[in-house]
Amino acid sequence: MAPHLPWLLLQFLLLLLGVSSAAQAQVNITLGSSLKPQGPNSSWLSPSGDFAFGFRPLEVNPSSYLLAVWFDKIPEKTVAWYAKSSSDGQESPVQVPSSSVLQLTTDGLLSLRNPSGDEVWSPRAPGVAYAKMLDTGDFMLVGADGTAKWETFGVPADTILPIQVLRVGPEDKLLRSRLINTDYSNGRFLLAVQTDGRIYFTLKNVTQINVTSAGGNSMGDFFNRATLDPDGVFRQYVYPKSRKARSLWSLQWKAVSSIPEDICETVMVNAGSGACGFNSYCTFDGTKNQTSCLCPEHYKFFDEEREYKGCRPDFVPQSCDLDEIAAMAQFEMTTIDRVDWPNCDYEQYRPIDETECRRLCVIDCFCAAAVFDPNTKTCWKKKLPLSNGNMAQTVQRTVLIKVPRSNNSESQLSSGSSKWKKDKKYWILGSSLFFGSSVLLNLLLISILLFGTYWGISITSKKKLRSPQSSGSSILPPKLFTYSELEKATSGFHEVLGSGASGTVYKGKLQDEHATNIAVKKIEKLQQETEKEFMVEVQTIGQTFHKNLVRLLGMCNEGTHRLLVYEFMTKGSLNDFLFGDARPDWNLRVQVALGVARGLLYLHEECSTQIIHCDIKPQNILLDDNFMAKIADFGLAKLLRANQTQTNTGIRGTRGYVAPEWFKNIAITSKVDVYSFGVILLELVCCRRNVEVEIADEDLAILTYWANDCYRCGRINLLVEGDDEAIFNIKKAERFVAVALWCLQEEPTMRPTMLKVTQMLDGAVQIPIPPDPSSFISSLP
Fold first, then answer.
1. According to CATH, what is the number of the domain 479-567?
2. In a 10 Å sphere around its CB, with 0-12 CB exposed, 13-18 middle and 19+ buried, how is residue 582 labelled?
3. Which one of 615, 633, 673, 723 is the catalytic residue?
4. DSSP codes, 432-486
5. At what angle are helices 439-466 and 415-435 packed, to 10 degrees?
6. Which of 68, 146, 167, 559 is deepest in the core (most CB within 10 A)?
7. Under CATH, to which class is 19-155 assigned?
8. Region of residue 88 (left: phi > 0; alpha: psi -120 to 50; beta: else)
9. DSSP state, 603?
10. Residue 158 catalytic?
């Protein structure tokens, strides 16, 4: 008998195990039963033990629990369903701490309560007699007649199981992807059944793609599920269940089919980022049936876990203040293979070669990437954010990404220092020859270098003497006038042309052979600040010469008298020209706009000392016989040394034309003039003042508001209503309004430089859609 004891003991133990399993895998769950996240009663099993319903600890936070249905016989314990609750219209997964309780009450109510006793979830099914966890993976609340009052199959999460049916119905009948694999919050994708019986894959409120059911493997050999994954792909998975299947398959879930086959190519949208986030690109690995999101070079994910949020540059974006040489020194274009962002084009060139395509993107501060097609010799510029990025073998075009040059220290050099670098190489070449040459040859080289240096200096000096800035004629120094000369020329300062903050301007005529008409500005205050302002004005204006600037002819500095003598502008001010009884010709207005822009470009970037005017307004823009616009009144100008870019000063300027930064106590740059020019540009387009106080409606009374609204609505015609010439040139009018809105950006760094402004006005570059200015109110002190 003794040899039989171990065998009998084994049979007994197996019997006990069977009884224990049968006890846990209840067929019916009776009223009054309950579950807790921790301990032996944390779940209810199906009869076979394949599935369990109860509490699952979260992967990212094991102290928090999900109410779920999962595959219980596999190590992964893969979740097939999880409870959700709605609050304020937002649906979220039910997550509770360890002291929570789920109870099937004696009243037939399934209720989940937190440690405080508050109910956090309940299906509210009437007439429940008991509950069941079925081998199909469906958890049911059942009535006395055996019919299901509520079931998990009826409110799916992100997964459906064999024999489960998706029905036409409200949003709780949809499959919703998770945000990411470890975050059960609602993700970006939906899958729903339409009325025609087909299943549609849906990217939220954007596109719908018809899908069909896919075949599966034997239920007896494999567990099956179909899940709408976080990447938007609806995949069918199998897991080896029987011994036979395990011999053919590794112990893991494997995707055997997916819809769509390549989500990267399927989800292409006009509005939105596509399958991956902005500035990212999507790639699909067919062998692994896996989708990935990647960032281009010098970009990184906003969130490494939530890659769908997209990528951002890991460098400071290109400033629009850089000139072409500085831009080329700081940035370059790098090639990225088999990747394309099909949207975001804002400018196209054809025919063109790849080298020029690269250059045009590098020097354009709006350009983040370029695409070159060698077959059609076409170049497309793209701006941020890049959308619908896709990596595929079918991409045959050359895609270029703008990135900072690796030699960052050198990339900060200005064009002047770049010239020094060239000279430095020249001297290094000479020194290397010194050490490897004979004495006679070294003396010869020294002579050549000195001779070349002398001539280089001489030629440069002659060029400076011979070629004044932006002009073809010599600049004469301002003439010194006596007070009595100017008093006589103005007939005792009789005819007033205008007045400003620092003085009054009178009309006069010189007693020379040409009887030259002049405008004499009389500085009327002798305060210390005014004295300094006068001297600054004389020194500065005397060194400037440009066809779009009013010329300073002379000055008087006699005793207490301070006067400036300017050329006389016969057509008066832009204020009189633009806001008179008759509407000026459209072409003349265009000419004035371009002239003012070029004059400001000279002041900001081309004269020896950068000048910020600080009071650009129609009264300070004068017109000559040919209606050429010339900027006047540098009495309010703030001068910057060559190595300065900004300054702090008191508030200056005129109501309606003042940039917002004047009121924020921050550094002032040349962008204040850009802002003022934007206002004037709108006035030139619309032939009306920026502020019309007699109009009650504020949106119409303030031109910047109205122009912005009309532009956003595509109704530029309203701005030029009744102006036949402007309507005939509506495309140019729209371009000018777009330039003005760029100039009116509240953030100074968002405004273009005057160089970029002139290029956009001339049509040399295409204009991206300007951001909607957040506020113009600050421009009205």
1. 3.30.200.20
2. exposed
3. 615
4. HHHHTS-HHHHHHHHHHHHHHHHHHHHHHHHHHHH--TT-SSPPPPPEE--HHHH
5. 160
6. 68
7. mainly beta
8. left
9. I
10. no
CA distance 556 to 566: 12
Q: Report the pLDDT value the prediction gives residue 5, as an integer from 0 to 100.
A: 31
Q: What count of other Cβ atoms lies within 10 Å of the Cβ of residue 721?
A: 10
Superfamily per CATH, domain 574-779? Transferase(Phosphotransferase) domain 1 (1.10.510.10)
Q: Write the pLDDT tens digit of every residue in 634-669.
A: 644 543 333 344 444 444 445 578 888 887 777 788
What's the CA gap between 177 and 232, in Å, rounded? 7
**Domain locations along the chain:** 19-155, 157-260, 267-416, 479-567, 574-779
User: Which residue has tokens 């003039």?
Assistant: 673
CA angle 297–301–307, rounded 5-degree value? 120
User: Given the structure tokens 């004629």, which residue do they identify?
Assistant: 473
Residue 242 identity:
S
630 belongs to an annotated ligand binding site: no
pLDDT, position 195? 59
User: Half-sphere exposure of 230 toward its Cβ, with a 13 Å CA cutoff?
Assistant: 18
What is the largest distance, in Å, between two alpha-carbon atoms of the chain? 146
Q: Which residues contact 580 (CB under 8 A, 6 or more apart)?
A: none
Q: What is the pLDDT of residues 227-285, one digit of tens each?
A: 998 888 888 888 988 777 766 666 778 877 778 777 777 766 666 677 788 899 988 87
What's the pLDDT score for residue 531? 60
Q: Give the dihedral of Cα atoms 253, 254, 257, 258; nearest 10 deg.
A: 70
Q: Which pLDDT score, from 0 to 100, does residue 302 have?
A: 85
**Within the chain, which residues score under 70 in pLDDT?**
1-26, 87-89, 169-173, 194-220, 246-250, 267-272, 407-477, 501-502, 525-537, 539-540, 634-655, 696, 698-699, 773-781
Whether the CB-CB separation of 779 and 675 falls below 8 Å is answered with yes
